[in-house]
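Checklist before submission:
- one chain only
- standard amino acids only
- sequence pasted in full

Submission:
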Amino acid sequence: MKTADFDYDLPPELIAQTPIEPRSASRLMVAHRSTGEISHRRFGDLLEFLRPGDLLVHNESRVIPARLFARKATGGQVEILLLRQRADRVWETLVKGKRVRGGARLALLDGPAGAPNGAEAEVVEAGERGMRVLSFDRPVLELAERVGVTPLPPYIHTPLAKPERYQTVYARTPGSAAAPTAGMHFTPELLLRLREEGIGSAFVTLHIGLDTFRPVGEERVEDHQMHTEHCWLTPAVARQINQVRLAGGRVVAVGTTSVRVLETAARAAADGAVDAESCPLQTVRAFEGATDLFIYPGYRFRVVDVLITNFHLPRSTLLMLVSAFAGRELIRRAYAEAIRERYRFYSFGDAMLIL
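Returned file contents:
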């Protein structure tokens, strides 16, 4: 399968630079897999397409202030993007700067123009394209909260007035370098209305890292290697999902990251023994660990029935996942129509509901 099959041309002015207010006022494209029908609504109309007994599954990962700034011993300044925690004080990172070699020591700064704050990091592993593994001399999350900056994707050039707008309203567990943006359309009021109509919510976690930032570079999709991301789905949520499926409800994944957690947990259930106490029908089982699940057309979905997602970058693994769920032809038509209808794209953009 060719990576070029997932390319498209997007007018730059359709890349959303600021979030819309209120969150649920964003546009919602509704695409029906069974008929190919496409319609245009607002996100606040979501209730009309869900039914009592359905279960929304959200990624509750919280974006950390993952952009750090440091100075080399030679005086040159570098920028560090935290990607994934390996150990207590050891992180995989992207480092922007010249000649940051293995063994180099970096003095952390109080912001992009700040002075050294006493914290240090050592490069313990040097990879390609700026990948570095850093060992810090103190707890990293505490340091980031004090001196870090919330990272925005490189296609957003407008400063964000309120950092909380690059979080979901239910973000709880810190660890992501980017937001699970499909969830940013939900407001507390909309979540309450859904619950009052008998539509449940469950929360999983996947900390978003490297693959969000880079398009697929290989010519063949099958040659792409996903980097692992840490995720978990608790026993309580596994029981919730299994019981919904047993009762005939639909599992509605909020975002591609939720899809990857759910399908990883479903793969674990298929490979393991049935937990009769959890549910006699075990679609998923509890899972915690690294996932490198790469979903592209040809993948057989085990648990996800409905998908809420944003409009994704060309040649990205996210676009491939959505194409696997809806079919490449429907997604090609939907994206072409979104461009004609002047939808807003990417992180702060509009949403799509795939039924």
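Reviewer check: The chain has a mean pLDDT of 93.
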